[in-house]
Specification:
400 residues; mainly alpha; two-stranded antiparallel sheet; globular
Length: 400
C-alpha cells in the first residue's frame, strides 16, 4: 500500500501556473509537435506491416499515451516506439502476440527496478559523462540515419526538397511567429498533396475504428521476455530513462521529473498498451530534444502530436499506409537530422573536461557503432571513467 501511494504521488502532476497554461498550445508548441515525426512514423508503419498489426489500435493507443504524458509532465516528454523491439519485429516478422508479450515483460521489469529503488541507484552511480555518451551516440545514430536513408530518397527531387527544408530550418530557426517545423511539415504536406496523393485510395480508407482487445498468453509473455524485452532493456535504461532524465534536468532544471517518475510512467504505459493492441513504447532523449529544438516548452506539443495519431487511428486507419508513403522521406529526414543535432549540441554544451570527453566519446562510439552498442557503451564508458579517475601512481624518489 505504501508503494502504491508513493507511485500515485510520483505520477501526480504539479499544479500549473496561469502563465504556463496560457502557453501550452501556442504556435511554438504546435511547431515542436513535429520534432519527433521523423523517428516515429517510419518505425510505426514498418511494424504494422511486418507483424500484421491492427493499424487503428496502434495509432489510437500511441496517440492516447502521448496525451497522457503531456498531461502528467506538462513538458515536451514524448512517447516513442521501443527501437530495439521494433528492429527485431521488423526484421524477424514476429507475431503480434509476441510483441504484446514483450511489452508486458519490459513493463514489469522496469516497474520492478523502479519500485525496488534499483533505477534510482543506477541514476546515482553511473557517471555523468557515460550518460552524456549515450546521448551523443544516439544523436550520431539519428543524424547518420537521416543522411543515409532518408535525405537521398527520391533522387534530384528528393535532394531539392531536403535543401528547401534545410533552408527553412536555418532561415526560421529564431522566428517565433513562423516556427521552422511548421514550415517544413507544410512543405512536405504541400508536395504530397500536389504530386503524390491518390484521392480515391485515401477516401476508401476513411471510416470510424476503435482499438481491439488482446489477451497475451503466458507463452507470449515468456517468448516476448526472451526475444524482445531482454535485448531492449539496456537501451531503455541508458537512453529512455537515464539519458532522458539527464536531458530533462538540462532543459528544465526547475521542473525536471525524477528518475522514479520516468520509470513509473514507462512501466505503466507498457503494462497497459498491449491489452489494447498498442506497440511497446518508451520516453527518449531524442524525442525530448526534437520537441524542444523546434520550440516546445510545455506539454502542449505532446498533446497536439498525440491528437494527430488519435484522429488518424479513429478515422483514417484504413488510409494510413497511403498517408505514410506519400509524405516525402527527405522532409522527414531533415526533421530527424535536426533531432540528432539537438542532442549533439546539448552534449557539446555540457561543459565536460578532458576526462569527461574521453569517456563520452568511448561510450558514444560503442553505442552508435556496435551491435547491442548501448549495453557495451555503458560498460566501456564506465570502465574508462574508473580507469581515468584512478590516481596516478607516485613516481619513485631517486636517492641522492
Amino acid at each position: 500500500m505504501t508503494a502504491l501511494k508513493a507511485s500515485q504521488s510520483a505520477l501526480a502532476p504539479p499544479a500549473p501556473a496561469l502563465a504556463e497554461t496560457s502557453r501550452r498550445f501556442n504556435r511554438l508548441e504546435l511547431a515542436g509537435a513535429f520534432g519527433d515525426l521523423g523517428t516515429d512514423l517510419p518505425l510505426i508503419a514498418a511494424m504494422i506491416v511486418a507483424a500484421g498489426l491492427d493499424a487503428a489500435s496502434v495509432l489510437i493507443v500511441f496517440g492516447a499515451l502521448q496525451v497522457f504524458t503531456g498531461l502528467v509532465y506538462r513538458m515536451p516528454m514524448p512517447v516513442q516506439p521501443l527501437k530495439a523491439m521494433a528492429a527485431l519485429v521488423i526484421t524477424q516478422q514476429l507475431a503480434p502476440g509476441v510483441l504484446y508479450g514483450g511489452g508486458l515483460a519490459i513493463g514489469a521489469l522496469v516497474l520492478g527496478l523502479t519500485l525496488s529503488g534499483a533505477l534510482t541507484w543506477l541514476a546515482r552511480v553511473i557517471p555523468g559523462p557515460v550518460v552524456r555518451g549515450i546521448q551523443f551516440g544516439l544523436g550520431l545514430q539519428l543524424a547518420l540515419l537521416a543522411a543515409r536513408d532518408f535525405i537521398p530518397h527520391g533522387g534530384a527531387v528528393g535532394w531539392g526538397l531536403a535543401a528547401a527544408a534545410f533552408a527553412l530550418v536555418i532561415g526560421l530557426r529564431d522566428n517565433r511567429r513562423w516556427p521552422a517545423a511548421l514550415a517544413v511539415v507544410g512543405l512536405g504536406v504541400g508536395y504530397a498533396a500536389l504530386f503524390q496523393l491518390d484521392r480515391a485510395a485515401l477516401e476508401a480508407g476513411i471510416g470510424f475504428a476503435f482499438p481491439a482487445w488482446h489477451t497475451p498468453t503466458p507463452a507470449d509473455v515468456l517468448t516476448g521476455l526472451l526475444v524482445l524485452a531482454l535485448p531492449q532493456l539496456p537501451l531503455s535504461l541508458a537512453n529512455s530513462l537515464l539519458a532522458t532524465h539527464r536531458l530533462a534536468a538540462d532543459l528544465f532544471p526547475d521542473r525536471a521529473p525524477s528518475i522514479r517518475k520516468l520509470g513509473l510512467t514507462y512501466a505503466l504505459m507498457n503494462l497497459t498498451a498491449p491489452w489494447l493492441g498498442g506497440i511497446p513504447v518508451c520516453h527518449g532523449s531524442g524525442g525530448l530534444a526534437g520537441h524542444h529544438a523546434f520550440g516546445a516548452r510545455m506539454g502542449g506539443s505532446v498533446i497536439v502530436y498525440g491528437s494527430l495519431f488519435l484522429v488518424a487511428g479513429l478515422f483514417f486507419s484504413g488510409s494510413f499506409d497511403t498517408l505514410v508513403h506519400i509524405f516525402p522521406k527527405p522532409v522527414l529526414g531533415v526533421l530527424l537530422f535536426f533531432e540528432g543535432l539537438a542532442l549533439l549540441r546539448r552534449v557539446s554544451a555540457a561543459g565536460l573536461d578532458a576526462r569527461g570527453w574521453w569517456v563520452t566519446l568511448v561510450t558514444a562510439l560503442c553505442a552508435a557503432g556496435l551491435p547491442n552498442g548501448y549495453l557495451i557503451g555503458l560498460a566501456a564508458g564506465w570502465l574508462t571513467y574508473a580507469r581515468l579517475s584512478r590516481p596516478a601512481a607516485s613516481e619513485p624518489t631517486s636517492s641522492p
